[in-house]
Amino acid sequence: MNINFLRWLKMDLYKKIRNVPNWPVEGIQFKDITTLCQDAKAFKEAIDKIAMHYKKMKIDKIVAMEARGYVFGAPLAYLLGAGFVLLRKPNKLPYKTIEEEYEKEYGKDKITCHIDAINPGENVLVIDDLLATGGTALAAARLVEKMKGKVVECGFLIELTGSLHGREFLEKNGYKSWSLLQIEVEE
Ligand code: AMP
Question: Which of 30, 62, 137, 143 could form a Cys-Cys staple with 77, CB 3.0–4.6 A?
Fold first, then answer.
């Protein structure tokens, strides 16, 4: 199917994403998903379309990043009949954790996960709201592999295409990615 036709089919979803220039720092075009989430029809359409892409894959667990990753990861896990794993910022999880440091589009950060969140050999899907440089998703994928899980794919509501090369970065590190919406940015 023609790529422009596919994009046109999803035009209502694209329109629901608010662009906030220079937030949280100068030069970042922040893609605000709250405007999509607070619209019942758009939110359902987005979740259903992501679920459609994954419904034929065998997925045991979905891991998602605090906090916007949960918004898409949890309903997706429910629809796919998969377990849901919460990745959190340091000092938030109550039990024993493992962690991974990563570079973000605007600064450094760390994610943590309970050490028993993934069983060896489980097929795991990494979900986040947005792919920019790929650093967050790579850290999530590495945490999964530290627990001997198999990363099936990294999935996103939005992929920033253009100068950030997140998809290529993940691919270079051995991970496939997929996104429902693609937005070109010049940063
Ligand atoms: P990255 O690790 O560079 O791929 O950044 C992705 C993570 O940072 C996701 O969890 C996003 O929520 C957040 N993020 C990075 N850049 C943006 C942006 N321009 N708009 C909205 N969220 C962003």
Answer: 62
Residue 70 sits in a domain whose CATH number is: 3.40.50.2020
Q: How many domains does the chain have?
A: 1
Residue of 105, 161, 168, 169 with the most ligand 1 atoms within 8 Å of its CB, for mutation: 105
Ligand 1: centre distance to CA 12 (Å): 22
Domain residues for the domain of 75 are 3-184
Residues 153, 127, 35, 110: is their CA dihedral positive or negative?
Answer: negative
Residue 77 is predicted with a pLDDT of 98
Task: Tell me if 166 CB under 6 Å of ligand 1.
Answer: yes
Counting Cβ atoms within 10 Å, is residue 89 exposed (0-12), middle (13-18) or buried (19+)? Answer: middle
Summarised one tens digit per residue, pLDDT across range 116-156 is 999 999 999 999 999 999 999 999 999 999 999 999 999 99
